[in-house]
């Protein structure tokens, strides 16, 4: 089930009212009506990122707060970073496989939605509301974590799980975010649009997230996600390098989209979901049934 397709035929046929302006207004009106039926997916996107941020804050407190017994048992920073990576990779994997993730596509990231919008898989109104609700979810998740952990979340070692440039500085952080976003997006596009491997897309994404947090985290904090970064930056007042996380991830993912189009074609983009081998409805411009026949 592919949601409500955008109309391509004017119901009034050859009516003299069929002008470009009238058609544009009608299409916008129908677009609003269609997107109004997709509000459950918008809320799911917000809830998924909120849960991701609660998990990120929880594991950061557990592993980085000095009063935590786990922190005291594990003095090696790289080991703690690897455990955070594994935890967040598993969190992502779990969220993608929830009924919400299967239905909304589990973007949880404005850069991901923007990439699929560029590839023609997400309608205008859906793209706008996905991005808006992703930002709402990121902020809501950190707010809930603050209610749970209180001052522990504000400790300098935890700092609301904020993503900030490391000791190598802003250029390295920007380059790191650009590269990891590009590689993740290209991997997702290649795997999800290959019949033999598409069902493994969530696992590829989760493994990359775990590896990135472990090894790229010291450069930029490993975000790849403007909404995720803003959710932590607001209470942490960490705005000095916010532009990195609003520019590098979208640029990296859009570059991956352009490369994919040149390696294959726009017809080789079948849908915008991480997990599509399920019976949940799909609100995107979906051709997943064709991929299953390849």
Could you characterize what this model shows?
The chain has two domains: 1-37; 39-293, Glycerol uptake facilitator protein, CATH 1.20.1080.10. The chain has 14 helices and no strands. The protein has helices spanning 20-36, 39-64, 69-73, 77-97, 99-104, 110-118, 124-149, 151-154, 170-192, 201-215, 217-220, 226-236, 242-263, 288-293. The longest helix has 26 residues, at 39-64. The chain is globular and about 55 Å long.
List the helices and strands and how they pair.
Elements: H1 20-36, H2 39-64, H3 69-73, H4 77-97, H5 99-104, H6 110-118, H7 124-149, H8 151-154, H9 170-192, H10 201-215, H11 217-220, H12 226-236, H13 242-263, H14 288-293
Q: Which keywords apply here?
A:
Glycerol uptake facilitator protein, mainly alpha, 2 domains, disordered N terminus, 294 residues, globular, single chain
């Amino acid at each position: 089930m592919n949601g409500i397709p955008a109309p391509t035929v004017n119901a009034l046929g050859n009516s003299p009212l069929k002008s470009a302006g009238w058609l544009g207004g009608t299409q916008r009106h129908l677009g609003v009506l269609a997107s109004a039926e997709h509000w459950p997916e918008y809320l799911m996107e917000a809830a998924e990122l909120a849960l991701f941020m609660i998990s990120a804050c929880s594991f950061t407190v557990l592993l980085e707060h000095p009063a935590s017994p786990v922190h005291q048992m594990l003095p090696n920073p790289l080991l703690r970073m690897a455990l955070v990576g594994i935890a967040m990779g598993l969190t992502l994997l779990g969220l993608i496989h929830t009924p919400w993730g299967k239905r909304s596509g589990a973007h949880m990231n404005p850069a991901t939605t923007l990439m699929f919008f560029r590839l023609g898989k997400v309608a205008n109104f859906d793209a706008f509301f996905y991005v808006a609700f992703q930002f709402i979810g990121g902020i809501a998740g950190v707010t809930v974590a603050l209610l749970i952990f209180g001052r522990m979340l504000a400790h300098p070692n935890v700092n609301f799980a904020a993503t900030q440039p490391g000791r190598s500085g802003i250029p390295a952080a920007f380059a790191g975010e650009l590269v990891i976003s590009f590689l993740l997006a290209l991997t997702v596009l290649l795997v999800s649009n290959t019949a033999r491997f598409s069902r493994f897309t969530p696992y590829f994404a989760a493994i990359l997230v775990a590896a990135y947090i472990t090894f790229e985290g010291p450069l930029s904090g490993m975000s790849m996600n403007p909404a995720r970064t803003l959710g932590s930056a607001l209470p942490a007042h960490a705005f000095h390098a916010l532009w990195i996380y609003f520019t590098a991830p979208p640029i990296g993912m859009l570059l991956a989209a352009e490369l994919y189009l040149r390696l294959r074609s726009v017809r080789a983009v079948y849908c915008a979901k991480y997990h599509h081998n399920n019976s949940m409805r799909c609100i995107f411009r979906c051709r997943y049934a064709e991929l299953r026949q390849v």
